[in-house]
From TrEMBL:
SUPFAM superfamilies: NAD(P)-binding Rossmann-fold domains. Belongs to the short-chain dehydrogenases/reductases (SDR) family. It comes from Nocardia aurea. This is SDR family oxidoreductase. Coiled coil: none annotated. Gene3D superfamilies: NAD(P)-binding Rossmann-like Domain. PANTHER family: DEHYDROGENASE/REDUCTASE (SDR FAMILY) MEMBER 4, DEHYDROGENASE_REDUCTASE 4. CDD domains: SDR_c.
Length: 260
């Protein structure tokens, strides 16, 4: 019998001071797991951990700071005794506009945070715990990594690369460690504000599910991938987008009435 119960498991969630990361920490804690939440600021990490409660731990660590990441992994092991789940959630998008208008600084920041950080944190978690004991890694990609959009080319390329990397790492870390990705559609968070704040009505009208995503929609899928219920799932990218990738649902809708 496999369940979504995470009692006795410990998760590190990068970029968990708000949005999808914080919702994920709350969902893993609700499933019985211990959680370590990172942020670039200790104050924000502490505030988020306090919101989760149940002994959650907040640790300041810029996602690309190798020393801070190592200290976070060590503190997690000291406090909870294992690292069974790693959610590589921290992400950034400093580059808006056509790809050829971007500079190296924006390219480097995008790819460092969105692609290098998942490699860094996974390698540390594997070295410290998962290599001997197994575990589940979940990388936060995006439906942008599965298609093409104006102005988001660099960000989307970093997420496409993360989807590829997820499969590569699933092979390299097999059979003890499962590595999967989530590809969310537009979710109500600060990072994506430009995509939904002024367009929510239009998105609601055209999306099959009739709404934009909430952080908890993504968190539920992460709990599944982290749990034993997903023990035969690896190298996969789960699209969680309320049907956004299906196209404009309004063109398909008609009055649905029951035929008695
Ligand atoms: N929202 C969407 O529609 C959407 C869609 C597809 C994919 N995603 C992905 O989902 C992930 C979470 O984003 P979100 O939408 O939840 O955004 P958000 O609400 O703005 O949260 C971003 C989180 O990442 C942290 N963070 C940012 N840069 C960091 C860094 N360099 N090191 C450590 N932490 C960092 C922030 O913490 P501090 O500011 O406290 O450091 C914050 O906790 C990202 O990977 C994003 O690309 C989001």
């Amino acid at each position: 019998m496999t369940t979504l119960d995470l009692t006795g498991r410990t998760a590190i969630i990068t970029g968990a001071s708000r949005g999808i990361g914080l919702a994920t920490a709350e969902a893993i804690a609700a499933a019985g797991g211990n959680v370590v939440l990172t942020s670039r600021s200790q104050e924000s990490a502490d505030a988020a951990a306090a919101q989760v409660g149940r002994g959650a731990l907040g640790i300041a660590a810029h996602a690309t700071d190798a020393e801070a990441a190592r200290r976070c992994v060590e503190s997690t092991l000291e406090t909870f005794g294992s690292i069974d789940i790693l959610v590589n959630n921290a992400g950034t998008n400093p580059a808006y506009g056509p790809v050829i208008d971007q500079d190296h600084a924006r390219f480097a920041k995008t790819f460092d945070v969105n692609l290098w950080a998942p490699i860094l944190w996974t390698s540390l978690a594997v070295e410290a715990w998962m290599g001997d004991n197994g575990g589940s890694v979940v990388n936060m990609a995006s439906i942008g990594g599965l298609g093409f959009e104006p102005n988001l080319g660099l960000y989307n390329a970093s997420k496409a690369a993360l989807i590829h990397l997820t499969k590569q790492m699933a092979l390299e870390l097999s059979p003890k460690i499962r590595v999967n990705a989530i590809a969310p559609g537009v979710v109500r968070t600060k990072l994506a504000a430009a995509l939904w704040q002024e367009h929510e009505e239009q998105l609601t009208a055209t999306t099959a599910s009739g709404r934009i995503g909430e952080p908890g929609d993504i968190a539920s899928a992460i709990v599944f991938l982290a749990s034993d219920a997903a023990s035969w799932v690896t190298g996969e990218t789960m699209v969680i987008d309320g049907g956004q990738r299906l196209g404009d649902a309004s063109e398909f809708r008609r009055e649905v009435t029951a035929r008695v």
